[in-house]
Amino acid sequence: MTVLANRGFAKMNGIGNAIVVVDLRDGAGRVSAEEARAVASPEGVPFDQLMVLYPPRCVGTAAYVGIYNSDGSRSGACGNGMRCVARLVFEESGRREALFETDSGLIPCRQTASDLYSVDMGVPKFGWRDIPLAEEFRDTRYIELQIGPIDHPILHSPSVVSMGNPHAIFWVDDVAAYDLARFGPLLENHPIFPERANITLARVVDRTHLTIRTFERGAGLTLACGSAACASVVAAARLRRTERVAEVTLPGGKLEIEWRVSDDHVVMTGPAAFEYEGRFDPALFVPAGPWRTLRSSASAAASTAMRPTWSAMRRERRGSPTPSWSTAAPWPRKRWRRPVNPSAGCAVSTRRRGSWWPVVPPRPTRRCSPPCPRSIVSSAMPTRWALKPGVRRARRWMAGLATRSPSAISWRCGRWRRIFRAGRSAHCRAPLPRCRTAVITAAASASSPSGAAIRARHRPIPWLDRCAPWSPRAMPRSS
C-alpha cells in the first residue's frame, strides 16, 4: 500500500500559493509521481506544491525536502512552500532558524517576526547551460523568443534566469491585459526550455516595486510564486530597472525580495498561513479502472479482483489511450482477414480462422544509411509473382529508358515516378541490378536490399541483356 494512505498532512498557503506538507521523517518511504497526482486530484487535497519532509541526508540539516508539482513532476525550489515548512518545524521544535536540503541545494530559513519568515534562495544562475536553454545565448538578459505574429508579436524578448527552476520574465505594461492561462502552456513547453520553465509577466511600477503574474511549471496559473518573484527582481536589477531590494506584488499578496551585494544570495521574506490538518483517504491511491480490488472487512490482506465486462472494457478503451486492464485481459478478437501471397514478402498466420491474433504482421520499412528524405520508398512492393498483367508494358517502358530523354518519359505511373525520383539521390547508389526481381522492385535502400533480390541476384535476364545500360541517375541501384 502507498506510504500516504492514512498519513497526516497540513494544508497551508504562502500568499495564496496552495501548499500541502507531509512529514515522512520516520523513514516510511518515498512519494511517487502517481501518488502526488492522486493527492492533487479534485477528490483529494488540491495543491500547487506538495512538500514532503524526508530524513536528513546532510549533517546539520533539519530535513531533506522533496518538492512535487501538481502534475507529479519534481521541482528544485519553492520559496512559498519553504516558508510553510519552516513554520511547522519552528512550531514543533521551538527554534527560529533551520537549514533544509532540497534538489537545488541547501536553503537556510529563519523567523524574522511573529508571522514573517525569510528564505535564502541562493545564488541566481545566468548561464544558458545552467538555466538550462536548448540554444546558446551569450546574454540572457534578453533572448530571442516571441509569441504572436512576427511583425507584431504579443510577447517577445524575455529575460531568463534560474532560481533553482528555469524562469522566463516578459516585460509588459499591464500584467492583467494578457491571457496568461491561454499561451502560458505554449511558452512553458517551448523547445528552447528542455526542462520547461516558469512564465512570468512583470511590470516595473517604480525603482522599488514590481507587479507580476506567473504561469508555474507543472502547476499552471497560480496566485503566487516565490521563486518567480526572486527571478523578476534579479532580472530587473540586471537591466537597471529597479534596485536590488524591491517589493513584489502578486495576485495573492506581497513579498520582500533582497538581492544581497555581499554574497549575491537572494532572500525572500513573507508570511505563511495555516489552514487545516487531515489524513489522506486510502481510496485516493486505488488504481482507477473498470474493476477495483475489493478488500474484505474481516481481513485486509484477503482481496479478490472482479473481471471486467466487455462493455466496460470498450468504454474505458474509448476514454483512455492506455487502459489499466490492457496487461490483464486481452482485447476482443479482431476480424479475420484473408492471408496474402507469401511471395509478396508477408508471412501468413498459421492460426485458425477467427483468431484475434493479427493475421499479417507488419513488415518494417527499409531506409538507406544515412537517411535520405528522397529515398524513402516502401519495401513492401510486390514481387514479379504478385504483379498485375501490366508488367510487360512496364518492362518495355523501363528497358527503353536508356534511349529516351528524361522529358520523353511518361510519368503516369505514380509508383515508378517515386522510385526514379528517389534514385537521383546520392545516398542510393549501388551496382547495376542483375536480377529480374531487383529490376521490378527497384529497392531504394542500397544498404538493405530485399531478400528476393539477394536470392535472385545471379539469374539471367534475357530481355535486359539486349538493352543498353541504364543511366545511373535514372534508376536506384540495388546491391
Q: What's the layout of helices and strands?
A:
Blueprint: E1 8-14, E2 17-23, H1 33-40, E3 49-54, E4 63-69, E5 74-75, H2 79-93, E6 97-102, E7 105-111, E8 117-120, E9 146-147, E10 155-156, E11 159-162, E12 166-171, H3 180-188, E13 198-206, E14 209-216, E15 220-222, H4 226-238, E16 245-250, E17 253-259, E18 266-270, E19 273-279, E20 293-295, E21 303-305, H5 310-319, H6 391-399, H7 414-423, H8 436-441, H9 451-455, H10 462-465
Parallel strand pairs: 2-3, 4-6, 12-13, 14-16
Antiparallel strand pairs: 1-2, 1-19, 3-4, 4-5, 6-7, 7-8, 8-18, 9-10, 11-12, 13-14, 14-15, 16-17, 17-18, 20-21
Short description:
By secondary structure, this protein is α+β, with helices and mostly antiparallel strands. The protein has helices at residues 33-40, 79-93, 180-188, 226-238, 310-319, 391-399, 414-423, 436-441, 451-455, 462-465; strands at residues 8-14, 17-23, 49-54, 63-69, 74-75, 97-102, 105-111, 117-120, 146-147, 155-156, 159-162, 166-171, 198-206, 209-216, 220-222, 245-250, 253-259, 266-270, 273-279, 293-295, 303-305. Helices cover 19% and strands 23% of the residues.
Write a structural description.
A hairpin with a 3-residue loop joins strand 11 (159-162) and strand 12. With 479 residues, this protein is α+β, with helices and mostly antiparallel strands. The chain contains 10 helices and 21 strands. 32% of the residues are buried. The chain starts with 7 loop residues before the first strand and ends in a 14-residue tail after the last helix. The protein is globular and about 90 Å long.
